Batch of 2 targets.
Target 1
Amino acid sequence: MLCSAAASSLAQGASVVIVTPHTPVEVAAGQSGAARIRVRVRPGYHVQANPVRNPSLVPITVELAPLGGVLPGPAVYPPGKLFRIAGGSEDLVVYDGLFFIEVPVRAAPAQRPALVLLKGTLRYQACTDRICLMPRDISLRIPISVVLEASAR
Amino acid sequence: MRTFLRMLSTLVSVALMSLALLSTTGAAQLRPGAAAPEFRLKGIDDRTVALADLRGKFVVLHFAATWCPFCAAEAPHLEKLHRNYRDKGVAVAIIDVKEGKSKVAKMAKKFGFSFPVLLDTDGSVAKDFASPPDVLPDLERDEVMIAANLIIDPEGKIQFFSLLDTGDFDAKLIKLQGRLNELLGTK
């Protein structure tokens, strides 16, 4: 009973935020593009947005590492919603449901055509209106297809 | 062969029953009237505080984390409670779960806490106080305790316990104060 409860708790906790794998982003060498990361939050939960109003809180963040001649830029976060805890004195800025985080990506002029997998982490901290989960990390694998300029969309 | 399988089956049953017993130990400790689990933790001021050191006082314990918005909402009311009750034999302490000293010290300074803020850096104390597996099963056992409040009496028994998952979050600690006043025999 303990084992199944623990496994269930890990499984359920891990699926509060789901990042959907997406098709490769095409970027021409010497040009820029944007990876659009699709994030879905389980109904009833919200995550702290980015930026947060209270510096103690953990904003959602996406960090991608550069690889070869493919360079990610700082992530761009959508506007959040205001949410106030009953009895609290300040509004929180949160995301819920489905939202997208964009990461600009630039391919160096000398980058050869290739499928490059950028690795990184999405960090979040989720709550309902009654409970909070500890901050958690999701590993990201973002495929970037570097193409010759003429063939880029 | 049959005898061996029977013995193996008995051994497995005993092992499972032992595991089940271990898993309910935490649950038993959170009943009102049950003995609170002992702890000994270092605070952000590097002083060590053990629950045993606080025998003879009522202890208000709050499990917190710097990232927890519910804890932030409670914080000013906790400090106010400490100031109002410290001369009435009540000790207040925060147990911060799974965070480093400098981060927690910054939070404590921001809220002006004048009571011990203790560091449960590996979450083991929070787990000792954890609810049974069927309570908030979505969460890890040491997460369940975050933003929980307890009152422990001078004999070390739990007299009040509130998990965050209540119908109305009590940031102003009204229910806790009500119970504390009952225990102190005051209004």
Note: Chain B has a mean pLDDT of 85.
Target 2
Amino acid sequence: MKKFETRFYGWGIVAAFLAFTSGIAVSEESYTLPDYANECASLIAEAPVFDCQDLDLVPVTVDGKVPDVYTPGMKCDRPAMLPYPSSTDGQCAPYSRMTAYRDDDIQMVLLCRRMFIRPKDDPNFDSIEIIMHNVKSGSTCFFISKNFGGKPEGDNGSRVPPPTELSPPKGEIAAADLWATPQQVVEHGCVYCHDSDPWMRTPWADQNGQLPSNPWGFHSIDVGGPFKTWPKPKSITTRGNTCTGCHRIGSLNTCKMMDIPTFGEQPAKMLQSVGQAPHGRFGARRGTANEDVPDPYSNWASIYPHSYWMPPGNDVPLADWNRIYQQDVEDLRRCCDNPDASGCIVSPIQSLKDWLANEEN
Amino acid sequence: MKNHPGIPYAQIDTDTVDLHTGMSRRTLLSGVSGAVIASLASRLASGAETTSKSALQGELLEAANQDYELVAQFANYPLQLEYGVDKDGKPDHASPNLTTGHFHYLCRSWGLDGVFDGNFLGPVLELKPGKPFSIKIVNNLKEEGIFEGIGPEEPKAEDWLPLIDPDNVAYSFLHKVDPLGMPFANRCKSSSPISDIAVDEVNVPKNYNWTNLHLHGLQITPHLFEPEGTLEKTSDYITIKPGEEKTYTFSLPEDHPCGTFWYHPHRHNSVAIQSWSGMAGMVLVRGKYDEEIKSYGITTEIPFAVHDPHYTVINAPDAGSPGTAKVARFLANQNGEDDYSFLVTGRYRPEFTVKRNEVVLIRHLSATIENVNAFRVVKSAQSDKPVPPDTDDDNIPFHIIASDGIAYDRPVKRMSMVCGGGERHDMLIQFPESGLYEVWSDHCGTIQFYGGGPKDQLLATFRVTDEAAVGQAPISEMTFTPGISPKQDISQEEIVYRRHVVFDLSGNT
């Protein structure tokens, strides 16, 4: 991990330099990966070269124990909470890896997913992702590999090129070959779920302690090209709401079931987090929202309090949970369905720049 | 000072004799022999009507004189209280077996103009936007007669050692790494020398007879520190010692929100002891909001102040004679050495009588010192030992029209709520059927610090008559002028002072 620390130190300087030197005015039609990568580097930071095997393991446990054997379609305590293609080995495939880096300005998560069961030290991964966020300005960018579990052999993650890299060292995978184009990223619809803030605190993502936190900070997808088609999430709350005492509730997929381009209809993340999503607590793929999809949850995970993961560390009796939180959940549901309903408070989730502009107005 | 618009919490007849003592509370307080007072304990047990209808009927809203005098004085209130008993029925604060009984509660209290009404909470103060007002505090907290040496005993530094000793089994859970990673990290032992302990002199409990006044939630001049209005962080608290008095003068802005606020002492060291005594009360800022409420035909207003006095049972009730209880030692509750009850408007399980279909305004104040509390209403099962229903499925809905003194534009429907100390909610409730209804605070037993919380308790009952109310607008059609615009943020220009505050649960700061 050390080699990354030196690379990440001084992100602000890198970002400032790139902001000064990069040309960003690009039409939507010609908005390429380098355009997107450079814009994100200018707004946030340049992603590093990294080896997926250097990242920290995301544990997989079944009923509290690391299993001796992993099997396709197995159940586990903390599934990945992202609908993997049905051809994969499922959301409990082991040896995904994730590490976060951060300083006073920047938060960045590097993530290499395993959707197929392979040996721990196998260099190949089935989805490689970067989320980067500028805490000061609110800018947020998402990068994801072209492959999202679509090929059983995966991608070699030994040298993951930064999205800004124009030509790789000889024999290494090129950024343009690994990373999805801006249009492809847009079709994944990242912002629909990452609407409250950049970070989704699912049990899967949260279990190795790497996930950054910025629940009240600025958050904005303010790059160009096709990203302009993404909706701008808003914050939904009611006065004195216990849930939003700790974090925002975004108005998109956190709030309500939505049809997301790559994944189909997805239940409200807010309800998933409290075991109350109507169809599958983890989401179904397109066309299956009304079907009984295979449940990836272990017995341990299916029983309260483990089936509710909000608030973090929750272990109060269900009746007590209901007393303090359920009315607040109901209030949020009501406001998500109708933001104009009585008592609903709707405010923009925005960048520092937009906030300042609104203040002046 | 006498022509004030203050109203008591409830309409209580004070002309009957206390059958247990033959003495009146006013007698005890004033020293005038032969006077009589209500048998409050027996009245409360019998479920006397306590609904207040006076506040919304017009004349009080026009009151111009807003000068109050609150006298702090020792008091001896007849109260019904819950307390733990062992298998032989003897008081045992550690026992989960609870019973109720009538007590003389020895405490500190507020009296309006020196007159102590039948409620041991302070009187309701009514204010109007755009009007100046004054509150004179007279401190008569002199430990004399039966109150001499009442204390409670001030804790010493070594009293805290068992609480922070990681070897103390009762509190060992505080030192384990909990799911949120917030263990107490100190390593003091019960045998640690006192010289090792840094005593927070500003905040440790002491000087229980020193007091001052805080008007909670009002947009007025800061008034906790000397001199009034100062923002200097090293200033001392305003202190009114026994025998002293102080007159606070304020003016509410013309655009001050109308609604429910409250007052209590805020002299650090003695706040908890005095507030457990009942030195707290409701403030109603009245104006356009009240006129809007009246315009919908609502005439019944119920101050519903939830309060959680902690006390030590000195003598249990015996053979029809009331027992004696006094305010608990400050650390007692943390050591599980005391008893407590939730009281509403200063009484144990009061009953309110309303008409069927009547839209009633409840002024809910969470005046608790120690505990969160819930609010939900269910049809009574008419059991001798009432228990809260398992689910919220059959709760009677209520509609909040203002929170913390700020009105919503439309009523917000809720089926239950949980309040922390200091919260205020004005709510409308309507009972479609006659009968008895119960208000519960329940299932909060694990939701406070480190998995603790208050017991379940029946707070109050509503008796709904067969007579139906008429002439009231449907709640769903009511609208109100918002107390504050949702977009009315604090501007940079309005920020005149900044402080950096660090909250810490490690026990290291």
Note: Chain B touches chain A at residues 178-180, 374, 390, 392, 400, 403-404, 406, 408-418, 423, 442-447, 451, 453, 486, 492 (CB under 8 Å).
